[in-house]
Amino acid sequence: MAVLTIAFSFAFAPYPPLTHVAEVIGYLPLSFLAIVTAFFCHEIAHKYMGQKFGYWSEFRMFPQGLLFALFLGLMAGIVFAAPGAVQIFGRPSRDEMGKIAVAGPLTNLILGLLFVGIWYFSSGIIASISFFVAYINVFLAFFNLLPFGPLDGAKIFRWKKELWGVLIGIDIVLFLIIL
After folding, report:
1. 134 lies in which domain range?
2. What is the CA radius of gyration of the chain?
3. Fewer Cβ atoms within 10 Å of its own Cβ: the N or the C terminal residue of the chain?
4. Strand, helix or coil at 144?
């Protein structure tokens, strides 16, 4: 979470981020809040669902993905992160795997909706913080809902296409509200 917090702080600072260190430092608390709500809650949701079905579930870090995210944040001011994932040990059924996969993006959508609401009905620093946290959650949900490779979206799409469509539709509406 520390590496992602730093990477996002650099990504949200003006470009080029290495010449705006004061802004980077200023973004650290906000980035940490966004990472805790988006990344941590997303992965915990997967872990919880896996354990709910009786499977050993644990987060496995991908150090190369973290270093890549940090490098991009520092050098380019963007973040593409693949920090790791919750691994489910056992043989979940298709239905169980679908529910485990949907837990992460659904958590991000719920948090995104909550923070969009706070943003909409507040002002000042609360509105700014809420917007930032909503944006990160909605973006993470969208990325994870892409129906490719090992992403949650591919598992959800194989499991229930109509549910995937509803989730991606909600995500797009939240993006339109934010932007």
Report:
1. 2-178
2. 17
3. C
4. helix
DSSP calls for 93-128 = -HHHHHHHHHHHHHHHHHHHHHHHHHHHT--HHHHH
Angle, helices 161-178/152-159, rounded to nearest 10 degrees: 130
- Residues 11-55 have pLDDT tens digits of 888 777 778 889 889 889 998 998 899 999 999 999 999 999 999
List the Cα angle 116/100/50 in 5-degree steps: 120
Residue type, 61: M
pLDDT tens for each residue of 74-105: 777 677 677 778 889 999 999 999 999 999 99
**Which of 43, 58, 96, 162 is the catalytic position?**
43
Helix and strand numbers (H, E) in the chain are 8, 2
162 is catalytic: no
Number of domains in the chain: 1
